[in-house]
Write a structure and sequence with these properties.
348 residues; ten-stranded mixed beta sheet; two-stranded antiparallel ribbon; binds iron/sulfur cluster; iron
Length: 348
């Protein structure tokens, strides 16, 4: 590792598309706005000494801290090694430039199909619905993504919807971001109404961390939208550790199931968070107890600023083998890595 200049500035994420004044806004939007954004406040809430935490103002300036208070409440007070805290705290290790770690590790730029549309795999198009997220995960593979230029919502979805409509080989649209559920529900409904006019679409997939980090987002309006969609929906949540679940998350996931969606989980293998077979087994079992099937365990995407989270491939394979030896097959996620130019996620 070699020390480096500060990380390039992350474009300011787009604001959540609020439809009401702050006082009458849905509860989830008020909770969203009330997120913790100051690393020192976060550490203070957990009774931790900021001087010992290795926090980095430079890393936080490039990719700000953001974490909902409900997620903070699931962290262990007084534990700097807490697996949820590690996922969100900006630390000085992020300032290092490590050979092999780049700004666009997964080739999003080369796979651009239209404004806000990325296509890497046959039949599937990913729509960058927004640049906003309720939580900022320090290991995020899109932490350097140019959201200001590449967000499908910008022109009322016109360019993105036209690109998908023009290609009859696309039968699945993936709403991603950022986090697509950071958009207000009427905005999502506007988008899916436009997509519903495309006859060759057969499935919708939604990638969202919100049911886990801000479960209040799963409200009656969202459930009504989901249950009225004209396609089968795969809803892929993102949890990396069993401690991310609590009763409010369970309730949100049960409500999503009630709306008829198929729930899957994707996790990222992260050093200091879940790089132990006990942690991975607990995660799979906790997912299943909440009605979610483990889907992918991603090997870290090698994005600048995240190298301290990397688990070597050999260790990743050994962990996965130990997991498979311990759990029923349906509880074992596929261990994969994304390689730019591949026709799908590559099994490790
Ligand atoms: S929720 Fe997903 S897109 Fe948003 S910061 Fe976390 S990993 Fe990145």
């Amino acid at each position: 590792m070699i020390p480096a200049a500060p990380l390039p500035l992350q474009p300011e994420p787009l604001p959540a598309a609020a439809t009401a004044s702050p006082a009458s806004a849905p509860r989830w939007q008020r909770l969203w706005r009330d997120a913790v954004r100051d690393p020192r406040e976060l550490l203070g809430l957990l009774g931790l000494d900021a001087a010992a935490a290795g926090i980095s103002d430079a890393a936080a300036a490039g990719f700000p801290l953001r974490v909902p208070r409900g997620f903070v409440a699931r962290m262990r007070p007084g534990d700097l090694a807490d697996p949820l805290l590690r996922q969100v705290l900006p630390v000085d290790l992020e300032e290092r430039i490590v050979p092999g770690f780049s700004l666009d590790a997964v080739g999003d730029g080369a796979a651009r199909k239209a404004e806000g549309v990325i296509q890497k795999y046959r039949g599937r198009a990913l729509l960058v619905a927004t640049g906003s997220c309720a939580v900022h995960c320090r290991y995020c593979f899109r932490r350097h993504f140019p959201y200001a230029e590449e967000t499908a919502a910008r022109d009322g979805w016109a360019a993105a919807v036209a690109a998908i409509a023009e290609d009859p080989s696309i039968d699945e649209v993936i709403l991603s971001g950022g986090d697509p559920l950071s958009l207000a529900t009427p905005k999502l409904a506007e988008l899916t109404a436009r997509l519903a006019a495309i006859p060759h679409l057969r499935r919708l997939r939604i990638h969202s961390r919100l049911p886990v980090v801000l479960p209040e987002r799963v409200d009656a309006e969202l459930l009504h939208w989901l249950s009225a969609l004209p396609w089968p929906v795969a809803f892929v949540i993102h949890a990396n550790h069993a401690n991310e679940f609590d009763a409010s998350v369970d309730a949100a996931l049960a409500a999503l199931r009630g709306a008829g969606v198929q729930l899957l989980n994707q996790a990222v293998l992260l050093r200091g968070v879940n790089d132990h077979v006990d942690a991975l087994a607990d995660l799979s079992q906790r997912c299943f107890a909440a009605g979610v099937l483990p889907y992918y365990l991603h090997q870290l995407d090698r994005v600048q600023g995240v190298a301290h989270f990397e688990v070597p491939d050999e260790q990743a394979r050994a962990l996965h083998a130990a997991l498979a030896a311990r759990l029923s097959g349906y509880l074992v996620p596929k261990l994969v890595r994304e390689i730019p130019g591949d026709t799908g996620k590559r099994p490790l």
